[in-house]
Amino acid sequence: MKSNQAPFLAQAPDPPRLAGARFAGFACLASLAATGVAWVGARAESVAAPLVVFPLALGLVLAGLLSVAAWMCRVAHYRAVVCTAVLAGLLTAVAHHAWSYREAVARARRMQIKVEAEAARQAGRRGQAVIGIGELLVEQPESLWEFLQSEARRGRPLWGWHARGVWAWLWWGIDALLIAGAAGWGVARFATLPYCNHCGSWYRTVRAGRLAPAESARIAAGLGLEAAELAGSVQVRMMSCVGGCGPVLLIIHARPSRRVWRMWVSQPAAGQLAGMADRDC
Q: Which residues, other chains included, contact 198 with Cβ-Cβ below 8 Å and sequence gap of 6+?
């Protein structure tokens, strides 16, 4: 809030609003992204799937896709985006097992065809009638639940030890949490970017530079800070929406003390600060 003690400061903009239609579109894209990442993961798992690293990688890939989806749908509500990312991560873990189940069924059917073809070929060589081939069935899981139970009994190799039964289920749960956690963490970094409700754009850097030592005291007074706090090398970065609708986000990095301030300043004050700072980029 602007005051006589800090004339540069301005009131922070309203938090991002959550539009139902846009969020519905984002949720649909999140479901598609989770299914796609799960399919890629099921394919890649047969080649290489390092423990811990693999689910984290899937979660980060999902986070990147969800960030793009949130940008496309203009969804900037922090809790909605992060919660959707976590749920999408859990969906990815479930869908990963579903794709593995489908692959197991397809593999069993291919094996069945090979067995029947080989049996018919052997019978033809002996001049026998081709009968009873239907009994030469390759066992295949009847459902996803049966497939998971079979995989749990078979076990999962963990650093020279096979996790079977309850331990396999526990490790699958850890994998799901790793995927969901990585997705939520990755999207949270995008969701923290300030957003303008008026022009529907995210804030981007419009000016970055270094404060001249002679201007530090004046800027500190305008921001309600002590002059000693901005002594030494000070980097500033200003962020604004595309339309320049509201206040400007000012980020100050004081190199000696390694302190960081994030303050909202008015447009006129931002113009003055831009003139005081040496352009750095």
A: 241, 243, 245, 246
Residue pair 34/61 in contact (Cβ under 8 Å)? The answer is no
3-class SS of residue 77: coil
Which pTM does this prediction carry? Answer: 0.78
Sign of the CA dihedral running 200, 204, 206, 212:
positive
| 3-class state of residue 266 by DSSP | coil
Return the amino acid letter for 222.
Answer: G
| 153-196 pLDDT per residue, tens | 887 776 666 777 788 888 889 999 999 999 999 999 899 989 99
Cα Rg of the chain (Å, integer): 29
Taking the C-alpha atoms of residue 93 and residue 178, their distance in angstroms, rounded to an integer, is 9
> What residues form DSSP beta bridges with 111?
none
What are the extents of the domains in the chain? 20-195, 201-279
**97 close to 55: Cβ distance less than 8 angstroms:** no
Strand partners, 195: 202
pLDDT, tens digit (0-9, with 9 covering 90-100), for 96-135:
989 888 887 877 777 777 776 776 677 666 655 555 555 5
